[in-house]
Amino acid sequence: xxxxxxxxxxxxxxxxxxxxxxxxxxxxxxxxxxxxxxxxxxxxxxxxxxxxxxxxxxxxxxxxxxxxxxxxxxxxxxxxxxxxxxxxxxxxxxxxxxxxxxxxxxxxxxxxxxxxxxxxxxxxxxxxxxxxxxxxxxxxxxxxxxxxxxxxxxxxxxxxxxxxxxxxxxxxxxxxxxxxxxxxxxxxxxxxxxxxxxxxxxxxxxxxxxxxxxxxxxxxxxxxxxxxxxxxxxxxxxxxxxxxxxxxxxxxxxxxxxxxxxxxxxxxxxxxxxxxxxxxxxxxxxxxxxxxxxxxxxxxxxxxxxxxxxxxxxxxxxxxxxxxxxxxxxxxxxxxxxxxxxxxxxxxxxxxxxxxxxxxxxxxxxxxxxxxxxxxxxxxxxxxxxxxxxxxxxxxxxxxxxxxxxxxxxxxxxxxxxxxxxxxxxxxxxxxxxxxxxxxxxxxxxxxxxxxxxxxxxxxxxxxxxxxxxxxxxxxxxxxxxxxxxxxxxxxxxxxxxxxxxxxxxxxxxxxxxxxxxxxxxxxxxxxxxxxxxxxxxxxxxxxxxxxxxxxxxxxxxxxxxxxxxxxxxxxxxxxxxxxxxxxxxxxxxxxxxxxxxxxxxxxxxxxxxxxxxxxxxxxxxxxxxxxxxxxxxxxxxx
Length: 639
Fold this sequence. Notes:
The chain is of the alpha/beta class. It is built from 17 helices and 25 strands. The strands form four sheets. A seven-stranded antiparallel beta sheet has the order 7-13-10-11-12-9-8, with no helix packed on it. The chain has a six-stranded mixed beta sheet with strand order 2-3-1-4-5-6, sandwiched between helices.
């Protein structure tokens, strides 16, 4: 339903053109049961004069028999379309309403509040940009409020309105409103939300819904409708990396072959070079065809048909992307799972996985941890029950093409389908390619134990084994220090091995690139080698950028915290740039080297390094002496 406009009567073409230019906001209402979600939507439509007279008459009639608003019209009945819902006064299914104002078009989803219908809430939230979290002012923040807030954040909804409803039942108390805001803000610290907008209201009476009303004079903010018309939700849209999942190949005659789909991210123009994945074949866009005619430019959310300059093999489920921004590819991914089935999920069960690039056979191979909704803490789990949310490892027999869900909601999501009932049992949000850190070795393999005792090696070599990891930015001086440390140990009669980052890349990690995931895998491989070397009584010296703090922590645990010494080569980036004879920093500045720590990617400075050195103020020998002092203090060098 659209807002009233004089153009409808005077110039229908101008009205339609004006209407088409408005942007669309998809939003949902959620929260605990009976917080007033359906009533709020009904009030929005009623006070905006967007209910037809015959609908209003029906509502007035049904309010006398099925309503729960006393002498008032029960506006919740406008959304509770199922007979079961009307009889119980609750929402079971997801109800949608479309309406518009002079400034914006809206699609609003009314999602159920009962815990057993959380899966319906996930369905309603999957395409939304904004969530209205309703809280009953009498009860405050409840478990379902937290669950829906967490799911909204998990599904990439960054904009949230925290609507403290039923203020009329707490005598419009500002103190009660402030108390609930503080309660919610404390919980939401662990969520990825953009400044939740706190709003006191009464959906039943209309205060602060469309108009401010007379009972909340102490509140200086905007009513809900004004906020919805002005909030900017476009900041998270990816306009750089072109992605279009192919949904259909159109061949109406011998002269036309086009690939239809909805653009998930980025822009495309005729002449742009695109790559078809998984084949990797390249062509260029010849035409962008739509029902209204050809376009010169198309962006996210636009349904189009692309024709290509070359006759290449493209099928349904393939992904068209730009050649310089390709998605990730993996058979195994790490994903957040919302379990939506009555039967338990147990790792190893077989399902169908439906994603933007088709269907494959898949299984959840491991549950890393389950999320405690009340505290957001991570807890161990061997199975998942209805409405559980967990971090899992998912394996597919077909290589998945994806972006992390935080980057692209369409290419980063999937559902799991029961192979027998064909029911959707889970929704998944991909975090990234599965890390080899989490792979469980074959149960038939047994670690072999050396026949030489550690004490015997310590006496022979005059040392206790350890691993020294030198971490820091490119050109910080890590390799120089590692080489000098190796020489110092050798001159003292000690036995060591140097695992230099470049040498590793030329050998055991020659198949890896420099994404965050591949850097993590590179450090894992080095850590495994270091552990084997340490078990032979030898000191390992590793010189790597290792930009991620969590991954360095995993290396510490893998090697053994008692044997691990982390040295932070804290050389200022300006000095690193001056020393960079290979021009890597300049190339990163130009965008030629993506995900370059210190330029286009983050280097997480160690907060708990065993030693910090700075090669811009300390000589090489001073740095080596400092490391040797730590080794001596730990009792790792004998004699």
